[in-house]
Structures are given as C-alpha cells and as structure tokens.
Design brief:
Length: 111
C-alpha cells in the first residue's frame, strides 16, 4: 500500500488549494481513505474521510462546508478541495488508508 499526497503550498486567506493523494497497492473503491493534518505544536486532526464501497463522506466541524473530498477510481486518486482557507488550516496534510499513511504535503495559509 502506497499513498502520496501532493498539492500543498502557500495560499492567501480566502483562497483555495486542491490536494491529491495518489494510491497504489490496493483497490481504492474497496477501502476508506482519510485526510489528516497536523500543525506545529498541535495534535493531529482528522479532516475528512470517504468510505470505500458506499462512498460516504465525513468532515471535521472546522472544515465542513469549506472542504470537499472526492475520489477518482480510474486515476486511483483521492482529492481534497479546500476553499475559503484560513490561517488555522495551515499544517502538514497527509492521507491514510488501512493503517498506512504516506508523506504529507505542507499547506500554509498566510497573507
């Protein structure tokens, strides 16, 4: 199982970013996949997750209505669209599935 997140970078408050999580080694639509983030000095926070077969989604209260998780089975990639970014969204974002996690991608929201 391999997961690789990318797409982070610097965004202004109110801006948007789209993160991608490329997967390999398992059938994406059979397993749940989640996005987590961790900021310096803070605990890890679950941001969003998407169910495997049923495709159900869930979001942390802090990102609900601003972030959207989606999946492209053909590309074996899961996306996290982040809109209306605020500085508190800054941190290292990474994706997980089945107990595995990949390297993260850094998001910085600052003017």
């Amino acid at each position: 199982v391999q997961l690789q997140a990318c797409g982070g970078g610097l965004a202004q408050p109110g801006g948007s970013l789209r993160l991608s999580c490329a997967t390999s080694g398992f059938t994406l639509d059979y397993y749940s996949i989640g996005w987590f983030r961790q900021a310096p000095g803070k605990e890890r926070e679950g941001v969003s997750c998407r169910g495997g077969r049923d495709g159900s989604t869930d979001y942390a209260d802090s990102v609900r209505e601003r972030f959207t998780i989606s999946r492209d089975n053909a590309r074996k990639t899961v996306y996290l669209r982040m809109n209306s970014l605020v500085p508190e969204d800054s941190g290292l974002y990474y994706c997980t599935s089945g107990g595995s996690r990949g390297p993260g991608t850094e998001v910085t929201v600052s003017s």
